[in-house]
Design brief:
Elements lengths: L5 E6 L7 E6 L10 E5 L7 E12 L8 H7 L12 E12 L5 E2 L10 E4 L2 H5 L13 E7 L5 E5 H7 L1 E4 L6 H12 L8 E5 L12 E5 L10 H8 L3 H16 L6 H14 L6 H18 L12 H7 L2 E5 L6 H21 L8 E5 L17 H16 L5 E7 L7 H4 L4 E4 L5 H10 L7 H4 L7 E6 L8 E5 L12 H18 L4 H5 L1
Helix pairs in contact: 5-6, 6-7, 7-8, 10-11
Length: 518
């Protein structure tokens, strides 16, 4: 025992300054993703933190072609080989605090026979105490460091200044993480402001904490881009040209653009223009355009003065923008772009006053800022919201507007957004492409990520970056008290109810059941 620490293994040859390989003592147990200590080779009394990512037993007698497998083939155990069994562990060398309290990475490799120690929780906790900058922080406890009772925190002030990327497979705990983070934030002083882009209607449980839910349509701006109008009407060729000219004429004259005014202006354009040569073709094309406007142009008459997003953010602790009320992707993109632009522009105007800040949560970011080639629907509005996302995440952090970019498929999110996030919360990820996106475009930069992410349990996340008080990534068991609102029933239950409805409908019919099937 040294300084109350129990030796549980010895370093082997071949270690480097960032990789420790050690043999585990016979009476010791070593677990993957757990923390251990080594003593600094050049600084006695200074302990270096390591974290295991692989533990495997080894017995040379069990190698293919040796005595062990041959004995196993006969159904017997080569007991004499037991004395050759040992366990090898591989660990990532994270670093240490020097005599001045500054975090350092290892400068030299451990030497063979250096002891590896199991730390007490009290000693381990010293590595999880925030060092410096506390006056500007707004710390929120979100759970426990995995395998310990040590509280884990994130700094909301750092998220507002520098953005966070949240990734993970479906049902791994992303939405629960955000819901519980926002719920707990309601008790902070000062209370932060959140805007949540809710695509699935999952955040209603936050209402009891002071959140307000507003359909996105209340913020939808009028269409002032003729290209969007022709896209929504599905026009092509000469019909497209006629409507473009008519819409541009209305907008340039400051006239209100409705289905009626557009049809009147289209008729005028066709009659006096040179797009169509004969009266017969003019009449034919006008009737075709009129039919499309009457049947697809309802969006032109549904517009009303949108709510002031800035006033809503100021007056509500959390504003949930509900995008689940319809499936009009173009309108959703246009609305998201307006919200991002107005919040960013207002924050920039107030930069010298220091009286505005908020965090915008973008659920399923691949729908708003997809990587090139994976767009849901190519349109002017899609390009517009993608540009708004890029501009906001590039500029707004300096003005206290932070984005939390969420996705289950990091590979599908535009990389210029991921790379701007200097904090990351990564839940379980098994896809190689998604792991590569995290590895290449965030600041962790270690291949060990692929060893950790697939094995995370539900509601466990690996966190790193400026919003995490520790200078190294940590795995956190997230405290979950509130859950996302999902479908009210499982598919099996829904199918049972559908069958019951069919039977009841048949029973209520005047015909006998055997005739109904016929």
């Amino acid at each position: 025992m040294k300084d109350g620490l129990k030796p549980i293994g010895c370093a082997l040859s071949g270690c480097t300054h960032d990789l420790l390989t050690f043999v585990v003592a016979e009476d010791a147990q070593v677990k993957v993703n757990h923390f251990y200590f080594i003593e600094h080779p050049l600084k006695p009394g200074i302990y270096v933190l390591v974290r295991t990512f692989k533990v495997q037993p080894y017995n040379p007698e069990m190698v293919t072609g040796r005595i062990g497998p041959l004995a196993g083939k006969k159904g017997r155990k080569a007991d004499y080989g037991k004395r050759l069994e040992y366990t090898i562990a591989s660990a990532e060398i994270l670093g240490y605090y020097d005599e001045m309290g500054k975090w350092r990475t290892m400068e030299v490799a451990p030497s063979p026979w250096d002891y590896v120690y199991e730390p007490s929780e009290e000693m381990l906790q010293c590595f999880f105490i925030s060092r410096g900058g506390a006056g500007d922080s707004l710390m929120l406890e979100i759970g426990k460091v995995r395998g310990t009772n040590i509280p884990a925190y994130i700094d909301l002030n750092a998220i507002a200044k520098g953005h966070m990327f949240v990734a993970g497979m479906t049902r791994s705990g992303k939405s629960s993480f955000i819901i519980n983070m926002v719920a707990k934030s309601s008790n902070l002083k000062p209370r932060p402001r959140f805007v949540i882009f809710d695509r699935r209607g999952e955040y209603s449980s936050l209402v009891k904490y002071g959140a307000r839910i507003i359909p996105y349509t209340k913020f939808t701006p009028a269409i002032n881009d003729p290209r969007i109008i022709v896209e929504k009407l599905g026009l092509k060729g000469r019909e497209r040209d006629a409507v473009l000219e008519a819409a541009r004429a209305l907008l340039s004259n400051g006239e209100k653009l409705t289905s009626k005014s557009l049809m009147e202006k289209v008729h005028e354009v066709i009659e006096r223009g040179s797009i169509f040569k004969t009266q017969e073709s003019k009449s034919k094309y006008f009737q075709s355009i009129k039919w499309l406007i009457e049947n697809r142009g309802g969006f032109l008459d549904r517009w009303s003065e949108p709510l002031d997003i800035i006033e809503e953010v100021k007056s509500n602790f959390t504003l949930i923008i509900d995008f689940s009320v319809d499936t009009d992707i173009e309108a959703q993109h246009r609305t998201a772009s307006r919200i991002l632009n107005e919040i960013r522009d207002y924050a920039m105007k107030r930069k010298d006053y220091g009286d505005f800040a908020c965090i915008i949560v973008i659920e399923e970011a691949q729908y708003f800022a997809p990587e090139k080639g994976v767009e849901v629907r190519e349109s002017s509005a899609q390009s517009e919201v993608k540009a708004s996302m890029i501009e906001t995440i590039s500029q707004a952090g300096g003005y206290n507007v932070g984005l939390i970019v969420m996705t289950q498929r990091p590979a599908y999110v535009i990389k210029s957004c991921i790379s701007q996030c200097n904090s990351v919360a990564c839940f379980r990820l098994k896809s190689g492409n998604d792991q590569d996106a995290i590895l290449e475009y965030t600041e962790y930069g270690s291949e060990r990520l692929k060893d950790y992410l697939p094995g995370l349990a539900d509601h466990e996340a690996m966190l790193w970056g400026l919003a995490v008080p520790t200078p190294f990534p940590i795995i956190v068991e997230v405290n979950v008290e509130e859950y996302p609102r999902k479908a009210v029933a499982f598919a099996k239950s829904a199918w049972e109810k559908m069958e019951e409805q069919i039977v009841n409908e048949r029973k209520s019919s005047a015909l006998p059941l055997h005739l109904q099937d016929a």
